[in-house]
Design a protein that fits this description.
Low-confidence stretches: none
Distance between the termini: 69 Å
Strand order of the largest sheet: 1-2
Number of domains: 1
Radius of gyration: 26 Å
């Protein structure tokens, strides 16, 4: 028959709290989550502004190619170009907001141990690197869109106008879907 241990039996075992990868002693995980959520919203705003710009670019194309004579520029072109300039300003605001998030996430990644996950399987360093990649690719897209806006109103070559419109629409440097894993780890899916 087994004997029930008494209080006088002193064993060396002391229960300790099991450390988990998602244990967040400094509130870093919550802050990283809120930054990634904000980034998700900003990238969705970028996509919506891009789509709005595509509609304006297509209107400019049809106006320039079908209603524009050599020495005549339609009055509607001015309002369309002003719309593109407003979209460019929105892009600039989005990039400025992402710049702030990126710098804060870089700082947070230095506070967190490099191999310790913050959100599911992603470490703060991995998240920071992804956000830096997003930031750099959007900066390149912004510069490309600046060039497109500067040239599309003055261009008369049909093929070159189509190249400008395609470059605006297809986004050479930024692919929203390539960062879907980051957003999915946080529970953010869908979008435009």
């Amino acid at each position: 028959m087994s004997k029930t241990p008494t209080k006088t039996d002193q064993s060396q075992y002391k229960p300790r709290e099991i450390t988990t990868p998602n244990k967040d002693q400094h509130g870093i995980a919550k802050l990283v989550y809120s930054h990634v959520s904000r980034l998700y919203g900003l990238t969705n705003d970028w996509v919506k502004m891009r789509e709005k710009g595509v509609r304006l670019c297509k209107a400019i194309t049809s106006l320039k190619l079908h209603e524009c004579m050599d020495d005549y520029f339609p009055s509607q072109l001015r309002s369309l170009m002003e719309g593109l300039l407003e979209i460019l300003e929105s892009f600039k605001n989005i990039i400025d907001a992402i710049r702030i998030l990126e710098s804060q996430l870089v700082a947070l990644s230095k506070l967190q141990p490099p191999d310790e996950p913050v959100i599911s399987t992603w470490s703060a360093e991995q998240i920071s690197k992804s956000v830096t990649d997003i930031f750099e690719s959007l900066q390149k897209e912004y510069k490309l869109k600046e060039v497109i806006i500067e040239n599309v109103a003055h261009c008369r070559d049909e093929k070159l106008i189509e190249v400008y419109i395609s470059a605006w629409e297809l986004e050479v440097y930024f692919n929203h879907q390539s960062y879907a894993y980051l957003f999915a780890e946080v529970g953010l899916t869908g979008g435009p």
